[in-house]
Write the structure tokens for this entry.
Amino acid sequence: MQSLTLTVERLAKSGDGVAHHQGRTVFIEGALPGETVRVRVHEGKVLHGELLEVLKASPARRTPPCPLADRCGGCSWQHLDEAAQRAAKEEIVCSTLEHLGGLPRDAYALSPTVFGASPLGYRRRASLHPVDGGLGFHGRRSAVKVRVDLCPALVPALADLGPRLVAELGGSMKEVEEVRLLESGGRVGVALHLRGEVRPGLRTRAEALAKKYASVALVPAEGAAERFGDPRLKADGFTQANEEVNARLVAAAAEALGGQGPALELYAGSGNFTRALAPPVLAVEVVGDQPALPGVRWVKGDVPKVAQGLLKEGAKFERLLVDPPRAGAPGIERWAEGFGVSRIVYVACDPASLARDAGELVNRGWRPERLQLFDMFPQTHHVEALMVLQR
């Protein structure tokens, strides 16, 4: 390991600063574009620089609003002000589309980034783990957990809930592997994921907790969950963390997809977008429970396999919405062509996957019409992107 003085050029999609040394790229966690930094370089297939000192700071650098920002793994960009965060995310996505997908920046219209009213206190769900007599999150790129008694990123109803839950559970905490929290409309759901089976003492505790919180679930290591209180509020399920920005993303996707002709939705999840789409809709998802919705037919199964089956049946659709996982939607260009769709709305959580899939679509004759980013996770490098493509 050696100590070097480097100049940071840009931010990578991982959120790290990027510099160069002897023709090799160095990724530096915590460094910002334009900064001169002293780092200790760790050799390997990829060079990583451990930030030792900021010799010349960026004007966008600030003191993180959370005192645990240097240790907790939840929010990696608290040292960067919000305006600079949004500009960096825009640059990362557009640059990735250009260099990986072959889509020049003048190939599509870029709409203003959508962001919420508050850059803190926006997260309505959390997964915490027992640590040091309390609850906490994983550390920065580490399996080591950090106790967090107050999290400014969480909505007020959850921000300081950890210590109270620990006190309420008492000795039963030793049976808990993970605590998941969810807030909805001011109501709180708690899910206790257990190391083993549900024991009578913990069941008694859960019944007592259900008088204080809207719902409580005991999730054993094996078998079905036991629920107390409102069964509709499931902290052990998946819910978008940023309710405000998610609502605007859903509305934008539904408007972009339009309402002419049958629609196909792939990777539909639990219906986050499905509820807002103009019917008729065929929605495909492999896991979870899907809601009964008017004008919607659900097909449960692996998306590529279902898509291939629909192609063999000769199914036709006018509109296609995809919201794939980080790996993207390989094969989307064949599906879109085979189904005869005229309009695609692609929601992406990974710029590289979006670039790859959009590039394949463009090669098949699709035109990228518009791109818009949704800052669902301020204080982090993560961003949601919505791209509209027209045949």
The longest strand covers residues 47-56. Residues 333 and 361 are 5 Å apart (CA to CA).
